[in-house]
Amino acid sequence: MGRITLITLFCYLTLFAADLFDKKCVPCHQKRGVGLKPIFFNYLLYHSSERRVKRAMKEFLLHPDPKKSLLPKKGKIYRHHFDPKTLDKALDIYWDRYKVIGKIK
Amino acid sequence: MATSSLSEKKSLYNFLGLYIFLTLIILLLASLMYYRFQKELMLSSHLPALQNDAKEVIHRIRQMHESLLEDNYYPRYSSFKSAIYDADYVKIFSLLKGESVDFHNVLYKRGRFIYFIKEPERYYLGTKYVVIEVPDDERWISTTIKNILFFGSIFLLFMAFLGYYLAKLFLRPMKNSFTLLNDFIKDTTHELNTPVSTILTNIETIDKSKLDPKVAKKLGRIEIAARTISTIYKDLAYLLLHEKLPSTIERIDMNELLAQRIEYFKTLAQSKRIHIRFSKSPCYLQADRQKMTRLIDNLLSNAIKYNKVGGTIRVVTFRNGFFIEDTGVGIPKSKQQEIFERYKRLQSSEGGFGIGLNIVYLIAQEFGIHIAIDSKPNQFTRITITWDE
After folding, report:
1. Over pLDDT 70: what percentage of chain A?
2. Quick one: which of B300, B357, B359, B343 has its CA closest to B325?
3. Is residue A103 part of a domain?
4. How large is the greatest C-alpha to C-alpha distance in chain A, in angstroms?
5. Could you tell me which of B353, B348, B370, B350 has the C-alpha nearest to residue B361?
6. B73 → closest Cβ in A38, A45, A105
7. What is the interface size between A and B, counted as CB pairs within 8 Å?
8. What is the pLDDT of residues B156-201, one digit of tens each?
9. Which residue of A47, A100, A101, A103 is the best one to mutate when testing the B interface, meaning the one whose CB has the most B CBs within 10 A?
10. Chain A residue numbers touching B85 (CB-CB < 8 A)
11. What kind of fold does domain B246-387 have according to CATH?
12. Lowest-confidence segment of A84-88, B2-6, B13-17, B155-159 by average pLDDT
């Protein structure tokens, strides 16, 4: 009984997590015309590995600093409001979606 | 002569051992350095091409990156293989044959491949390291080995000549002092002979029956002392000269010779109240009379020296040999073998052991004579001398 609840909870959480990225991040970015894919490749270009890219993104999204932005400057920067845990999950999905490893032929 | 040339040889061997050891170490180190140098040379000769290869790969992954991986075809070349790794050494994509990459080195050889690692100025596709792999035909190794063998042999030859020269230089002072000592001993021993012979001949001419018993006893002691010196002189002379002494082989009647030597040692035996019994059977040997005398003298003097007061010595001849048996302290079984081995080792070790047995062994060796020891502690020691007919 307890196990089933746990499994359902887990499934729910992962589903929720997948939802999280597609529901929370993608729409707004689409609306505002800031493609998440170019952003991803920009982070790759400057931070290289999975660990470093995620760390840099998290750092930026939690504590935005115009000097650290990898996007072209346009004065005021958008401030994201997410708690670190949600952000971790969203960034995992983000990485898996655009990662390079396994996609090169 | 024997001992001096032995220690001379020993120090020569020590010197040569050290010399060869050092020469080989130098050769080894030099070869190793030469090999390393050749390897570096080979690697750096590949560098421009490798730089170029890396540039092409970077150019290509930059294009891929800028297309946001819409264009995802990794470049392939026939002349080299390549791979890309991220900043945490995670493989992004690889065409390499060899599996592990050493990121601490920029240019190195592992297995049969040469590796070159280049860091692009920006991490296209997350690439921090571009690894280029080209096969090494290893021709340089065979030329290097050929060169090492060639120049190594020249070096060894040179060192051999130098070593020979040095060894001579090294031995000269020692040789000088040895010859000096040798000559000195030879001269002195020779000069020793005349006075001792004079004493002995004079004692022999004295008619002892006419003397006062006390004086006769004292004269007997003088005779023994003089005979002992004479025997030692003869042993020494033999040891110093035996290599140069030609042997005059004759048919020796061993009964006659043994009787004569027993007679010679009679006074000495009497001083310890030792009784010598001699039983004869026909016994002949082809050998040098002087040398056989030395052999018998040494055996007899040992038999007297190690006998107890009032003991007996049995001398028995038979068809192809004789034995001398005493009733002395004896030699324990465990030591009998040892004495034999020491006989044999005597030639390689220096002194220490009584020269008497050394002489017996040397003479026995010259005439193909066998020596056997049989003994019971505190009962008897029997040395049996036999020869092949």
Report:
1. 79
2. B300
3. no
4. 55
5. B370
6. A105
7. 60
8. 999 989 988 888 887 787 777 778 877 777 777 778 888 888 888 8
9. A100
10. none
11. Heat Shock Protein 90 (3.30.565)
12. B2-6
Q: Quick one: which of B277, B222, B282, B234 has its CA closest to B254?
A: B282
Q: Fill in the amino acid letter for B79.
A: S
Q: Does residue A105 lie within any of the structural domains?
A: no
Interface contact B126-A46, CB threshold 8 A: no
CB A81 within 8 A of CB A63: no
Amino acid at position B367, single letter: F
Q: Which of A36, A104, A105 to mutate to probe the B interface, most B CBs <10 Å?
A: A104
pLDDT over threshold 80, residue B346: no
Show residues of chain A in contact with B74, CB under 8 Å. Answer: 104-105
ipTM of the complex: 0.83
- The stretch B211-219 carries a mean pLDDT of 87
Is pLDDT larger for residue B61 or for residue B169? B61
B92 in contact with chain A, both atoms CB, cutoff 8 A: yes
Structure tokens that stand for B271 in this block: 């001083």
Helix, coil or strand: residue B359: helix
* Closest to A35 in 3D by CA, of B68, B70, B73: B68
Residues of chain B in contact with residue A57, where contact means CB-CB under 8 angstroms, are: none
Domain-embedded: residue A93: yes
What is the rounded distance in angstroms from the CA atom of residue B3 to the CA atom of residue B66?
91
Interface of A with B in 53-72 (CB under 8 A): 53
What residues are paired with B9 via a beta bridge?
none
DSSP bridge pairs for B375: B381
Instruction: Return the DSSP state at A22.
Output: I
Checking if the pLDDT of A1 tops 50, the result is: no
Residues contacting residue B89 through CB under 8 Å, at least 6 positions apart = B101, B103, B129
CA distance B123 to A56: 15
Chain B contact for A41, CB < 8 A? yes
Give me the pLDDT at residue B120, please.
95
Instruction: Give the count of domains, chain A.
Output: 1
In a domain, A87, yes or no: yes
Please give the C-alpha separations between residue A93 and each of A26, A54, A88, B311, in angstroms, as whole numbers.
12, 11, 9, 113
| B92/A104 touch (CB, cutoff 8 Å), yes or no | yes
Instruction: Decide: pTM greater than 0.90.
Output: no
Give the count of beta carbons closer than 10 Å to the beta carbon of residue B316: 18
Mean pLDDT confidence for A70-95: 84
The pLDDT of residue A2 is above 80: no
Domain ranges within chain B, ordered by starting residue: 2-141, 246-387
A101 contact residues in B (CB cutoff 8 A): 90-93
Structural domain for A10, as ranges: 2-98
Q: For residue B149, which amino acid is it?
A: L
